[in-house]
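dumping these here so i dont lose them again. two proteins, back to back, each one seq then structure tokens. dont judge the mess
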Amino acid sequence: MSSASDVLLDVRDLKVSFRTEDGIVRAVDGVSFSLRRGEVLGIVGESGSGKSVSMMTVMRLIIDPNAIFEGEVIYKGRDLMKLSQDEMRRVRGSEISMIFQDPMTSLNPVYKVGWQIEEQLHAHERLSKRSARARSIELLKAVGIPNAESRIDDYPHQFSGGMRQRVMIAMGLSCNPDLLIADEPTTALDVTIQAQILELIKRLRREFDSAVVLITHDMGVVADIADRVVVMYAGRIVEQGQKSQVFYDPQHPYAWGLLGSIPRLDRERTHRLPTIPGQPPSMLAVPAGCRFRPRCPQAFDRCAVEDPPLLERAGDGHLDACLLPVEAKRERRDATIRPVPAKGPA
């Protein structure tokens, strides 16, 4: 069992709201989780569930004056929410790095990609100009960019979307961070390059004992690389547990809805894949009781009046926010879908 000293990141009751003309948008509402050194945490959920906003807040990258923050983000014993901007800049990039979802808006269009990677190496690693350039070429090669020696002097607009994503991944890995936050890092990449990127992340973890937070819609990627899984819906965590627990024994109807919508190669295609009905709620006016209730086929009377907390209900560290008894969940789940089996340890 890991000791408390192994905990690298401890997010406690994080809340992020935005003042708008229509009211307060509660984008993240009481998210808590911890991450140990060398661990990979997969965060899954539909668009708008609060995944990216949570991790952008961890990085202190949300500077909107209408944003309201509550809670604690403890990293190596320090609350990042209380650091000054200068102190946070020393952490960002060197100790905590992030691969952003949209590389075109994350890369500066007026600077060459090599300069943008080298700038980070100069700032945090104190490398000479020649050493930083050599390291940048090495990183570009590692993420699968051909002719890296010449492409290092190209501008972002001269790369395709997938190539720009690889540049962002190279920047994220450049300083061998203790914590890497990867927001949909393989979305724009073909399966061959995706496998290479996942192998790079595994190598970072293996060689430097780095922790990884992987935000993704791809449950296959989560099954390949994650140790634990967090499922988010409407700004909250609705299920959290070891990968094997969430994949083999999902406890929340939303989680098993996500898993049931994945095509399976080991079964005959006899009918259409099941889908989750409806749309996620507006964060201006979330439903009373359980937030998933309007879309949940398993909802009953209590769901309309009780807001279920995230609790350990089976005594095995597996948390969920559903009012159904454990055996009732399993019975109803197995009547609708069978969960996707997880792969072996990464």
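---- next one ----
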Amino acid sequence: MAYADYEDVMAMTEEMVSGLVKEITGGYETVYHTQSGEEYKVNWRRPWRRVSMIPALEEATGEKFPPANELHTKETNEFLKNVLKKVDVDCSEPRTNARMIDKLVGEFIEETAISPTFIVGHPEVSSSMYELDV
């Protein structure tokens, strides 16, 4: 595994977890019960869904996002504030670019992930290693 990439790690994760669920339950489907009484059927069978972050946000919001190398700018900060307002999503302070993108991901991508889903294509600005001074 010295030369594994994130695709390899996703495949290993799918294989391990899917196999574990099959071994324990005898199948690939389980039922998730929420605290409010809702039930969701979760399908653990491989391959799991992969969602590319920025294209999914563009589809959900109807807005074309700036290129990845511009997501850290003050102009993008204003763009994201306008997108949040348009789609009626609140983001508490500080409204950094990374925080606003994460809020949109939570609202529009994570909410659709009932069965296991990999969100891929995280922009550099979303990295905790990235310092943002907007």
